[in-house]
Amino acid sequence: MNTFIEKYVNPLTDFGFKKLFGSEPNKELLIDFLNQILPERHRIQDLQYAKNEHLGAVESERRAIFDLYCRGESGERFIVEIQKAKQNYFKDRSVYYSSFPIQEQAKKREWNYRQEPVYTVGILDFVFDDHKDEEEFLHVIELKNQRCDVFYDKLKFIYIELPKFKKTQAELETHFDKWLYVLRHLSELQDRPRELQERIFKKLFQAAEIAKFSQVEREAYEESVKYYRDIHN
């Protein structure tokens, strides 16, 4: 009986996600992915990682720890979360988390309340109960008025329900399709498919190769995989 040995890291594990998208040498990967889901006016050329732990205004208030938190060169804030298992109040948590980058923009003394855009991106390894009968897997939410006109365009929530993405390699059409395929299937692959020959995916596959990890990284990844499997089991 053949035993399957992973060649590439699972990007849906905590370690895998931060290894591929949360490190300075690989930030090009995060930029390319985010630019597939951002409106054209907020496409980013560069970003800086910021502290991912945020405390309340007073010590007794609950803190928030984001998977990734970064800022675009024009001041936009991006919270990027990977959610491995269904959580009853994940939307509520997203709104709560978005309040931290909003509040941190407050200035002491005189301030006109101008805010830079805040995006919360949720990559979900589950399907929302209230969307389970819909085929659509990409949800972009913003504040609108009673006529469905955008009332405020600087606060957006973007959710991707990965289990709904069913395309095979041969069916991949867009760059976004390819990203979703990688997120779902990277750890199952033994070679980079011919459909993923762009330079950005060459870099991703190189960064994801487990054989290149240090011993400490391998141990950390194994722990992360165990946690991921425990959640799904």
Number of strands: 8
Proportion of residues in extended strands? 15-25%
Rg over CA atoms, rounded to whole Å, is: 19 Å
Structural class, judged by helices and strands?
alpha/beta
Report low-confidence residues grouped into runs of 5 or more.
Answer: 55-61
Overall geometric form? globular
Question: SSE order in H/E notation?
Answer: HHEEEEEHEEEHHH
Q: CA-to-CA gap between the ends? A: 23 Å
Proportion of residues in helical segments: 25-40%
Largest pleated sheet:
6 strands, mixed
Strand line-up across the major sheet: 1-4-5-6-8-7
Counted by DSSP, the helix tally is 6
Overall pLDDT score: 90
Would you kindly provide a brief summary of this structure?
By secondary structure, this protein is of the alpha/beta class. It has helices spanning 14-21, 27-34, 90-103, 175-185, 199-208, 215-232, and strands at 47-49, 53-54, 64-65, 68-72, 77-83, 118-124, 138-144, 150-161.
Structure notes:
This protein is α/β, with parallel strands linked by helices. 30% of the residues lie in helices and 19% in strands. It has helices at 14-21, 27-34, 90-103, 175-185, 199-208, 215-232, and strands at residues 47-49, 53-54, 64-65, 68-72, 77-83, 118-124, 138-144, 150-161. A six-stranded mixed β-sheet has the order 1-4-5-6-8-7, with helices on both faces. It has a two-stranded antiparallel ribbon with strand order 2-3. Residues 55-61 have low confidence and may be disordered.
